[in-house]
Amino acid sequence: MGREFLIAGNWKMYKTPAESRDFVQSLAAAFPDAPGLTVAVFAPFTSLASLHGLGVKVRIGAQNMFHEEQGAYTGEISPLMLRGLAEYVLVGHSERREIFHESDDDVNKKLLAALKFALKPVLCVGETLPEREEGRTLAKIKKQLDKALSGVNSGDWERIAVAYEPIWAIGTGRNATPAQAQEIHAFIRQQLQEKAPGNRIKVLYGGSVKPENSLELLSEKDISGVLVGGASLKVESFSAIITSGLKLLKA
Predict the structure, then answer these.
(1) Has 127 been annotated as catalytic?
(2) Residue 165: active-site member
(3) 128-147: per-residue pLDDT in tens?
(4) Of 93, 102, 127, 131, which residue is the catalytic one?
(5) Which residue is catalytic, options 102, 127, 165, 185?
(6) pLDDT band for position 62 (50/70/90)?
(7) In Å, how far are 43, 116, 164, 185 from 197, measured between CA atoms?
(8) What angle is formed at CA 237 by the lines to CA 173 and CA 162, rounded to 5 degrees?
(9) Can you list the domains of the chain with their CATH numbers?
């Protein structure tokens, strides 16, 4: 099989339902379908219903969820509520870990709940700047992978994707060089092969991805997509990143 890319945009706390719908319709018109290319947007909960039924050219994901199916959890959204509205869900995003203090155990519960309800979890892992400077990057990522992926059934591995997000590069304008990103992606892929031999699990890079660096990042052999933040909020910049993936698929 040739290369496959998942080009995903995380809108974070931006876009109303009407803005979200307009964006997805404009984005879908901005790039051609291509074998091996999957494009997804992770929209706010309030926008998911407005995006339902727009077609499959742009897949829809949720940015978070709680691990329980239902119950007295005021303000939370369950995997049961997301089923039918979202195909993907982010779990363990650095902002959930750093700002909202989600633990590796919380992330594991969410990932297993997502799989139970036929969602495709995108597991986010990554290190802080002090951890990188102290040489603890690989140990941190191994711990996150080991904890989050504990208990995954053998038939579920190919529904999981992993996104490497160096926390020091998110929203800072700094980004890992393609070589730095490739080194970590190769390590993640090795860890995943040990856990699920033979499975084709996509490993995405996230951290100040822009049109200017997307082609170089996607050219690295172990990077199978990108998780885009700020540059996914405008059709022009996000479609330019998608075009980088298309160039490599046609090469």
Answers:
(1) no
(2) yes
(3) 989 998 999 999 999 999 99
(4) 93
(5) 165
(6) very high
(7) 32, 22, 20, 16
(8) 65
(9) 5-250 (3.20.20.70)
